[in-house]
Design a protein that fits this description.
Radius of gyration: 20 Å
Number of helices: 4
Strand content: under 5%
Oligomer: single chain
Order of helices and strands: HHHH
Number of domains: 2
Distance between the termini: 34 Å
Length: 80
């Protein structure tokens, strides 16, 4: 508990440039950049990719795939 409080206090005292560089090096940031690049590539390759109809279709069918992937992840981490 004390270490968590000290870590938060240390992060608040870091200069902006140091926080920004640690943000850029985080895995979440690189995943976000890859997602944006893929969206741009597919939008350029097909003009209908970002159309409202395609987005609604993706929102209708992707939750099922996400639930299946979540279940498979649980099985893989459990070692089954």
């Amino acid at each position: 508990m004390v270490q968590a409080v000290m870590t938060i206090a240390a992060e608040q005292e870091m200069p902006r440039s140091k926080r920004r560089s640690s943000l850029i090096r985080s895995p979440q940031f690189s995943s976000l950049v890859i997602l944006i690049v893929l969206l741009a590539v597919f939008a350029i390759a097909d003009a209908n990719f970002l159309s409202p109809l395609n987005i609604s279709n993706m929102m209708a069918f992707l939750p099922e795939l996400g639930i299946i992937a979540l279940g498979m992840t649980l099985l893989l981490t459990a070692g089954e």
